[in-house]
Design brief:
Radius of gyration: 22 Å
Number of helices: 20
Order of helices and strands: HHHHHHHHHHHHHHHHHHHH
Structural class: mainly alpha
Mean pLDDT: 82
Number of domains: 1
Distance between the termini: 6 Å
């Protein structure tokens, strides 16, 4: 396996999906802004989308891939194991969706209690969540298919699948002016339809490796029990950032438009998290699991150091860019139509504090993978549980005083806590050690990132008049600045050898 090439393949399709996601969110911002309709839709969309991220962005892999990879050479055993998991997921998720649909008013109250004072917004949120919730069933099963493909080191198809969701939503949004207030309903139906299409799309590719057979009589052997014992802790620990955002959405529902502010800020940093954390964690897990099983310590150490290096190489400069130009980024991406200047400023403040936590969000994904490859989900789970409780405590304790901004602040603080303690336990258990190459590269990555930050800050200052809210072509100036800043960073990184072109051809 070539780490950089495999990560590059995964990242390429992820970037396309996220760019289409930006187009989708720009259209939503123009048509819905940050008002009550947007708040209701984002709550309805947040639940299935959170589950999509929890299942598809590496968390399901964390429990499934190590177990399935160890059985790949034993075809019959691997097929039986995968089929048992598939059937249990299908039955469990089907009944979960039915139950939640029945008790939807209570469910929506639990995830958006602040809507209770506005009966119209609450009724709308209940209706929209009922429409979007079946997405959970199909996207979870689609994620199961993705895990099968990833176990066979096939990353392209799985990473391309979310593009379907964004294409459907963009298609609906293009008719936004015609649909008016009905737009949120059509968007919700498109969410559920995309889940079905993603499931069918992946089925055609996964059947080469696995053909699911539906059975009511399921053999729950030791391997299946072991998998489900790992599943919940792995989903919780690997998806802790998404859980923190979900907690934030619940608390933000008590402040008008705050759900929307957080949604738009969340969308911006997610593209880097997808590459610097999710892509790397997903790509290294199958190979790292095999090396752990075969006790190849040199290979394990090499992959872990290179994964950490690549994670920091991508996340540190991105975090600096968000701190330097959070308002300009939000304004250029979403500052049109119904998304007024006040909304830009509030979303930008949230993005600034999320930016401080971006390296931690990515490190959590990578460090957790080091544990998951060893079938250890307990330690990441306990650390993540404490992290979420810390996030809830800070958010609730300071919400009245600080308002919705305490949510990104609390998320960042709790995420750094999580990342630091994951690292401490990795060192304490002798599961990770730095090599000299990493230490040398890390210093150079910091230097290149700081120089890039100075250069990017100068660009933003130079183009200040072109990036103000009222400027029509501000997005073009921002994109130009980002491309120049990224080019400068790569050039400096290559010159000071923080990154070597020859790394692209290294195999692990």
């Amino acid at each position: 396996m070539n780490l950089i090439k495999s990560t590059g393949t995964f990242s390429f399709f992820t970037i396309i999906s996220r760019l289409l996601g930006y187009v989708r969110d720009i259209l939503i911002a123009v048509l819905l802004g940050a008002g009550p309709l947007a708040d209701a839709f984002f709550v309805a969309f947040r639940i299935p989308n959170t589950f999509r991220r929890l299942f598809s962005e590496g968390t399901f892999n964390a429990a499934f891939v190590p177990s399935y990879s160890s059985l790949i050479k034993k075809k019959k055993q691997s097929e039986n194991f995968a089929n048992n998991i598939f059937n249990l997921l299908l039955l469990g998720l089907f009944f979960l969706v039915i139950i939640i649909e029945i008790i939807m008013p209570l469910f929506v109250f639990l995830i958006a209690p602040g809507f209770e004072g506005d009966s119209q917004k609450m009724e709308l949120a209940i209706t929209l969540t009922r429409i979007t919730f079946p997405f959970l069933l199909f996207i979870s099963l689609a994620s199961f298919f993705s895990a099968i493909l990833n176990s066979h080191n096939k990353f392209a198809i799985a990473s391309a699948t979310p593009i379907i969701l964004n294409i459907l939503l963009i298609g609906v949004l293009l008719f936004g002016k015609i649909l008016n207030d009905q737009l949120v309903y059509y968007l919700s139906y498109a969410v559920s339809l995309s889940g079905i299409l993603q499931f069918v799309f992946l089925y055609f590719f996964v059947k080469k490796y696995f053909l699911p057979k539906f059975k009511l009589q399921i053999k729950i052997d030791d391997k299946v029990k072991f998998f489900f014992r790992k599943l919940l802790p792995s989903i919780f620990s690997s998806g802790v950032t998404q859980i923190n955002i979900l907690v934030g959405t619940i608390i933000a529902s008590f402040q008008a438009s705050a759900v929307s502010y957080l949604y738009y800020a969340d969308r911006v940093y997610q593209i880097n998290l997808a590459i610097a954390g999710i892509a790397i964690g997903t790509v290294i897990l199958p190979q790292l699991s095999k090396h752990v099983q075969n006790n190849k310590k040199e290979k394990i150490n090499l992959i872990q150091n290179k994964a950490l290096e690549l994670c920091l190489f991508l996340s540190i400069p991105a975090a600096i860019a968000l701190l330097v130009a959070s308002e300009e980024i939000i304004s250029s991406l979403f500052g049109y139509g119904s998304f007024v200047e006040e909304s830009v400023k509030n979303s930008a403040k949230a993005l600034f504090y999320f930016g401080m936590g971006l390296p931690a969000f990515s490190l959590i994904k990578v460090f957790s993978t080091f544990f998951f490859a060893r079938h250890n989900t307990k330690i990441p789970f306990y650390i993540s549980l404490i992290s979420v409780l810390l996030n809830i405590f800070i958010s609730i304790f300071y919400f009245r005083e600080v308002g919705f901004l305490i949510i990104p602040i609390a998320t960042t603080i709790s995420s750094w806590f999580n990342a630091i303690f994951l690292f401490i336990f990795l060192k304490k258990m002798s599961l990770f050690s730095f090599n000299l190459i990493f230490i040398n590269r890390f210093i150079k990555i910091l230097a290149a990132s700081i120089l890039m930050g100075i250069f990017f800050n100068y660009l933003i200052y130079f183009l200040e008049d072109k990036l103000i809210y009222k400027e029509t072509f501000k997005s073009l100036y921002l994109v130009s600045s980002v491309i120049l800043g990224l080019s400068f960073y790569i050039l400096v990184a290559v010159l000071i050898k923080a990154f070597k072109i020859t790394d692209i051809h290294l195999k692990y």
